[in-house]
Amino acid sequence: MRIKKMVGKMRCKKTGSLFILRIDRGEEIVSTLRAFCTDQEIFLGTVQGIGAVNNVEIGLFETATKEYHTTKLTGDHEITSLLGNITTLDKKPYLHLHATLSDASHRAFGGHLTSAVVSGTCELFIQMIDSHIGRTFDAGVGLNVFDL
Predict the structure, then answer these.
(1) CA 31 – CA 26 distance, rounded (Å)
(2) H/E/C letters for each residue in 65-125?
(3) What does DSSP say about strands 92-102 and 143-147: parallel, antiparallel, or unpaired?
(4) How far apart are CA 95 and CA 46, in angstroms?
(5) Contact 75, 143 (CB under 8 A)
(6) CATH top class, domain 19-131
(7) How many Å apart are CA 77 and CA 128, to the nearest integer?
(8) pTM: predicted TM-score of the whole model, two decimal places
(9) For 111-131, how does the pLDDT look when each residue is reduced to its tens digit (9 = 90+)?
(10) Per-domain boundaries in the chain
């Protein structure tokens, strides 16, 4: 097991090509994951997780205008599903994460995960893939897409 250095309070265990992470209260998920991937030199992989957050920003990409529209959610929310992938852009890890969250009334909200501050804990699995897939900007779509 080779873990280069810890990011914030986050804890990690590695088994084979699988990283198991716990991100603790007060930590921001997206920036912590990005720093972790940089430190561990993870340039291709998948992410899945669950957790509890209280300050979240999710987005929706409007294809007609090629713009992201973000929504901020405050108060207790459960991450019922966090899924995504890790690729590279400009030789740096690039995270593409989506999340579904529920509030105290069990209403669901979802979209592109821009940021989320952990209120309880966040449990994540990163499956590292021993390869590289980059991203390239597609002007027709308005997004950075897989460079295959």
Answers:
(1) 12
(2) CCEEEEEEEEEEEEEEEEEEEEEEECCEEEEEEEEEEECCCCCEEEEEEEEEEEEEEEEEE
(3) unpaired
(4) 9
(5) no
(6) alpha beta
(7) 28
(8) 0.92
(9) 999 999 999 999 999 999 999
(10) 19-131
* pLDDT level of residue 19 (50, 70, 90 thresholds): very high
Cα separations in angstroms, 124 against 25, 72, 83, 96, 139: 14, 22, 10, 15, 33
What phi-psi label fits residue 26: left (phi over 0), alpha (psi between -120 and 50 degrees) or beta? left
Distance between CA atoms of 18 and 67, rounded to whole angstroms?
Answer: 34
Structure tokens given for 105: 């009334």
> Three-state DSSP class for 31?
helix
Nearest alpha-carbon partner for 101 in 87, 86, 120: 120
First to last CA, the chain: 31
